[in-house]
Amino acid sequence: MSDTVYIEYRFTVKPKEPASDLLIAELGNVGFESFVEEEDDVLAYIQKTDWSENILENVQILDNPRYSFTHDYKEIEQENWNATWEQNFQPIIVDDVCMIRAPFHEKIKVEYDIVIEPKMSFGTGHHETTHMMLQHILQLDVKDKTVLDMGSGTGVLAILAGMRGATTIDAIDIDNWCYLNAKENVERNNMDFISVYEGDAALLKGKKYDLIIANINRNILLADMPKYVQSLNSGGVLLLSGFYTEDLDMITQKCVDLELKFEKNLERNNWVAAKYVN
């Protein structure tokens, strides 16, 4: 992976909220893998092999007259990524009990101290969807449960489930870099019992879980939900995020069609993380 070349886009966004979140969501849908938010700018990264000069043609928010966008881009070698995120990645604390930090951050006394090195993977806890999924997991009793983290990114959600007592945990991501990064972070947090896999929902065949966590995007959730439900034990919990408030009814209807029951949802800056039970 050391010779992987990324394209770094720098977008200046005015006003920044909520435009930056909407921009990040649309960029994710066209292949951008990772983002860093600065005071006025959004940095977005895509592998050069997945990039084309017209990559932004279908990013509709750039044409929205309510917001002003300017951008430029350049090539960046993957090994330069660490320096980029170290300059920008700040530790976060979720509900006063869970800290997500990098190895170079000072440790403070919290119940759950998670150390991750995100590199090019999604899931530092800064994005609303990851933050809310962490909150959901903190509210659940996962002791001795079997857990699936689908679209695991850095593996941070699987790691928190492990710290809270889950005994069998699978983390799956289709992206090779996320797969490798999650393996590193699992080892870094002494969670050797978390199994990390590279692939998609096809890997779920014949497997059963008490809790399934899927923080991906609306279209993948809708397509793969039948496989999630097939893999969910009776009385099991399905946590879904990666979509907007306006998509909640559509997601919930799909779950109801699959005989799941909506229990509650969290909202943060128009993003949603919903809980369903089997």
TrEMBL record:
The record's top EC class is: transferase
List localization entries.
Cytoplasm
According to the UniProt record, one GO cellular component term is:
ribosome
Q: Is Transport among this UniProt entry's keywords?
A: no
Q: Name one GO biological process term.
A: methylation
One family from Pfam that matches here is PrmA
Q: Which SUPFAM superfamilies match?
A: S-adenosyl-L-methionine-dependent methyltransferases (SSF53335)
| UniProtKB keywords | Cytoplasm, Methyltransferase, Ribonucleoprotein, Ribosomal protein, S-adenosyl-L-methionine, Transferase
Its recorded reaction(s) are: L-lysyl-[protein] + 3 S-adenosyl-L-methionine = N(6),N(6),N(6)-trimethyl-L-lysyl-[protein] + 3 S-adenosyl-L-homocysteine + 3 H(+)
Is-annotated flag, keyword S-adenosyl-L-methionine? yes
EC no. given is 2.1.1.-
Organism of this sequence:
Maribacter stanieri
Protein name, per record: Ribosomal protein L11 methyltransferase
Q: What is the lineage of its organism?
A: Bacteria, Pseudomonadati, Bacteroidota, Flavobacteriia, Flavobacteriales
For this UniProt entry, what is the primary localization, expressed as one broad class?
Answer: cytoplasm
